[in-house]
Amino acid sequence: MKKKIIFEDEKDFMLKKLLKKFKRKPIILLDMDDTIAEFAQPFWTLHNKLFKDFVDYLKVNGWNFDEFSKRGKDAYTLFKYPGLFRNLPPKPYAKEFIEDLREIAEVVIVSDSPSGTSYLETVSLDIDPEHTIDFPHSNPTDDKRMWLEEHFNFDKDDIVFCSKKDRVIGDILIDDKPATYNSFVEANRKIILLDAPHNRDIDTKWRAKDLNHAKKLVYRMLEEMIKEEAS
Ligand SMILES: [Mg+2]
Question: How far apart are CA 77 and CA 228, in angstroms?
C-alpha cells in the first residue's frame, strides 16, 4: 500500500534525500510526556475524578502541578497511580513522526522516570475523609518501556531514563519542559520546543505546534547544522 504522506512538500522531500546521504546519522533525542504521549489531559482527568476537582488541563500554564490542584502536592502522588504511564494515548502524528525520523536519524528516547512503589511498599491516598485508596504496586519506568515497545517498537537500548537530559549525548532534543529547554540553550545545544500551555512564555523560532510541524523543524535544524559544519 502506498505510504501516506502527511505534509511533505518538495523542499522537505529533497532535504530528506540529502540528509540520508550523510555518513553519520544524527541522533535525535525525544522526550515522552506531552511530546509523543498525551500526558496532561489523562493526568488531569484522573486527578479531577479522584479529587473531585475541576482543573482544566489547557489552563495549566505552569510546571508545578501543586499550584493548580486543590490538593497541592498530593497531585504528584498520582504519578504512582498503577498503569497511568502504560495507558497514555500517543500524540497525533507520533507514529509517522518517529517512522520518518528513523529514516534519517537515530531516535533515542530520553525520559524522566517517576518513582513507583518499591518492594512491599504501599501508597495510601486519602480521597475524602471517609475513603482511602491504596496503590499496592506501580512501576512507571517499565510502564513507559512497554508503552514505547507497543506503540513504536523501541528497543530498550534506545531508551535513556534520566532527570537531567543535558547529560545525554545527541544532536537535537525535542521536549516541552521549560527548564530542559533553558538548560539546552545555555549549553548552546539544539532543542525544539513542543508547544504546551506551560511553555508559552518562551520566545523561540524553534517552537513546534505539533509533531507534524516538529518534523519540519528537525529538517530545518539539520539543514542549518550541515551548513554550519561545512563553513
Ligand atoms: Mg515532557
Answer: 46
